[in-house]
Specification:
Rossmann fold; 2 domains; 7-stranded mixed beta sheet; 8 helices; 33% helix
């Protein structure tokens, strides 16, 4: 998929590696990916660069055959040989690489380090203080290498359950198909069933949006009867029923876009840089917190 840039006023393209900016995303069904693409496209346009989005697992093969001014690689920690592939690309191509990884260190490529693990533990403890049981709503990633429990957010949830002596963790998890519609349908059945949850952590922002919509359809009051916290940023445009409480990175789309576009316009080799993105709690209207909920225009 190409996010094409058309603008007669765009500046001329400077001498470059070629290929524009490449975003290797796991999916475009997630509002996070849509918002990031929009931000990068806008910023890249100002430098005369186009934006190409890859949503299939062949990002490595693509970049081997077609160099880019910069490439953001977002699913490194979820792929069995992700780190090896990044190093291979760095050795074999001139593309300006930015790896989104909590495990890697910069070499000839940049690393954006942003671990969700502490956020999952804080979110679990926040909800557990008010509820006897806290659930996790997560996409069914059993086809991925290592299965669902190898995913950092799921593994952190399992650890949090153990810390609070709430095991077995599997009884606290509800898996859904990937995508907003599948999540909505599973969530609606769950909320209408006999084991309706009262507190849910959502693996991603789009799952929190789907759960919030399902609660409205099922007539479940939020946050009085159901509290929701998302692990991951939620674009404001996706919050159709008001701000959702979440743990995420402040101004993440602009900051991440800045890292990638800056790498694209830099010329010549340089040592890689480490960019740390720390997670914070942003209260919304889906939790019974003491903090003042943010407004939709607070971002």
């Amino acid at each position: 998929m190409v996010a094409a840039n058309y603008d007669d006023a765009a500046p001329p393209v400077a001498a470059s590696r070629g290929g524009g900016v490449v975003l290797a995303l796991s999916s475009l069904g997630d509002p996070w990916g849509v918002q990031l693409t929009s931000q990068v496209r806008q910023d890249a346009l100002c430098t005369g660069l186009s934006t190409l989005v890859l949503t299939d697992p062949r990002w490595y093969e693509h970049l081997l055959g077609a160099e880019a001014d910069a490439a953001l690689l977002t699913a490194i920690d979820l792929e069995q040989d992700g780190p090896r592939r990044v190093r291979s690309l760095s050795d074999r191509t001139r593309s300006g690489l930015v790896a989104f990884s909590a495990q890697m260190e910069p070499e000839r490529f940049d690393v954006v380090s942003s671990s969700p693990v502490p956020a999952v533990h804080h979110a679990y403890a926040r909800l557990r203080a008010r509820h006897d049981r806290v659930h996790l709503l997560a996409p069914d990633l059993r086809s991925r290498p290592g299965g669902v429990l190898s995913m950092p957010r799921v593994a952190a949830f399992v650890d949090a359950v153990a810390v609070h002596d709430d095991a077995p963790a599997e009884q606290h998890m509800r898996l859904t198909p990937e995508g907003t519609r599948g999540t909505f349908e599973i969530a609606l059945d769950w909320l209408n069933g006999p084991d309706r949850p009262s507190a849910v952590l959502c693996y991603t922002g789009y799952q929190a949006v789907a759960l919030r919509l399902a609660a409205a359809r099922a007539g479940v009051e939020v946050p009085e009867e159901l509290e929701i916290i998302a692990i991951g940023d939620i674009p404001a445009e996706a919050e159709l029923l008001g701000p959702i409480s979440y743990y995420g990175v402040d101004d993440v789309f602009a900051r991440l876009s800045g890292v990638v576009v800056d790498r694209a316009v830099e010329r010549g080799d340089r040592p890689g840089r480490l960019h740390r993105f720390d997670w914070e709690y942003f209260p919304g209207t889906t939790t019974r917190d003491d903090e003042t909920p943010r407004r939709p225009d607070d971002r």
